[in-house]
Amino acid sequence: MNLSGFGVAYALGVSLAAPPGPINMLMFSEAVRNSRWSAFSIGLGALSADAIFYALVSTLRSSVLNSKIIFLLYPIGCAVLLYLSFLLVKGANAKQSEKQVKGVKYIKGLGVGLTNPLQIGWWITVGLPLASIFGVEFALGFFSGILSWVLGFTSMVSLYRERLVKAFKVISYASAAVLCAFALYFALLFLSALTA
Fold first, then answer.
1. Which end of the chain, N or C, is more open, meaning fewer C-beta atoms within 10 Å of its C-beta?
2. Which domain holds residue 134?
3. What is the mean pLDDT of residues 108-121?
4. From residue 42, how far is each of 25, 82, 92 by CA, in Å?
5. How far apart are CA 6 and CA 4, in angstroms?
6. Rounded to whole angstroms, what are the CA distances from 73 to 24, 39, 60, 68, 144?
7. How far apart are CA 113 and CA 103, in angstroms?
8. 54 CB contacts (<8 Å, ≥6 apart)?
């Protein structure tokens, strides 16, 4: 196994799972009001959505890689990552939702994950090239990173409850920095493809 590919994908998985967004807000709310396992089921649903997108990307990968579409995905992926970084910095001071999560938690997480336009856009523009570059290490690292975040986040919120609200700002800035680094990587791939 290529440990560098695994590590890169792990960092990316954590950086994408950690920022404040609909899934983390749902997990936060559920962990504060109920239990970490209830919050974990929401995160597991969202992870399942990513697994579905990964399966689709892996199926389409061979046909897409043989076309010139992959060349265009680098600048688009760079733009998506920069936009996500912008949203993280902009929303770093956003307040947590006070609404209680109701219904089947796993299905709610899966539904939010499958209908999130940014998540869909990320898999088309960023996930496809990364899966083609790193192969199986990408999947193992990426989903390990997401699962680590979901387990750690729900456990910490259930232990410390409202104290973690302040930590969201630090998490947002750190995640934005990681996403910017990946955006730079995609820009360099695009520039090297242009000069090749």
1. C
2. 3-195
3. 78
4. 10, 27, 22
5. 5
6. 27, 34, 14, 9, 25
7. 16
8. 123, 127, 131, 139, 142, 143
Q: State the average pLDDT over residues 95-101.
A: 47
**Domains in the chain, number:** 1
Segments in 91-166 forming alpha helices (H): 105-115, 117-122, 128-134, 136-160
Question: Distance from first CA to last CA of the chain, Å, rounded?
Answer: 29
DSSP state of 20: S
Q: Residue 188: pLDDT above 80?
A: yes
DSSP result, 26-71: HHHHHHHHS-HHHHHHHHHHHHHHHHHHHHHHHHHHHHHHTSTHHH
- What gap in Å lies between CA 137 and CA 51, rounded to an integer? 14
Residue 31, amino acid: A
Q: Is the separation of the CB atoms in 174 and 16 below 8 Å? A: no
Q: Which two tokens stand for residue 173?
A: 């800035």
- The dihedral sign for the CA sequence 186, 187, 192, 194: positive
Sign of CA dihedral 3, 43, 50, 106: positive
**Average model confidence (pLDDT) for the chain?**
78
